[in-house]
Amino acid sequence: MNKGGGSGGGSGGGSGPTAAAAAAALQKQKALLQRVETDITSVVDNFTQIVYVSRVSDPPVKNSQETYMMEMRASRMVQAADSLLKLVSELKQTAIFSGFASLNDHVEQRIEEFDQEAEKTNRLLARIADDASANLKELESHYYSSAQRLTLDI
């Protein structure tokens, strides 16, 4: 989930949108790791309790209590597993959108490069047009002052 990059341009230290995005990404990463830890701990603890409670005992009342405990623990395991699946889905979406964000950044960078190249080409064309205009004026002045033009007009 690294959202850092070389698009800050300058030595601003810890300011700007890049630093804010990095801080938000770090905070989100910590929250996701906490969720993973909590959900995995819940699955393991509930499974351990199911195994512990699953021993068979003689009194029927105790068996029904243990059955209820096993069902409750199994339900909690399912909730924790569902939470982990949602987390995986969220991570996939983050990866996809992060890919789109980096792709957008790349496209914007290429657009900027092409704009600069277009500016450079326009300046070159303007310089060529100025040179051509100057050369044409020089040729016209030579033509109008030449002896051959004077002989053709008569």
TrEMBL record:
Major site of localization recorded for this protein: nucleus
Keywords: Coiled coil, Nucleus, Transcription, Transcription regulation
CC per GO annotation: mediator complex
Subcellular location: Nucleus
Name this protein carries in UniProt: Mediator of RNA polymerase II transcription subunit 22
Domain of life, per lineage: Eukaryota
UniProt-listed GO biological process terms: regulation of transcription by RNA polymerase II
GO molecular function: transcription coregulator activity
Coiled-coil region(s): 104-131
PANTHER family recorded: MEDIATOR OF RNA POLYMERASE II TRANSCRIPTION SUBUNIT 22
InterPro entries found in the cross-reference section: Med22
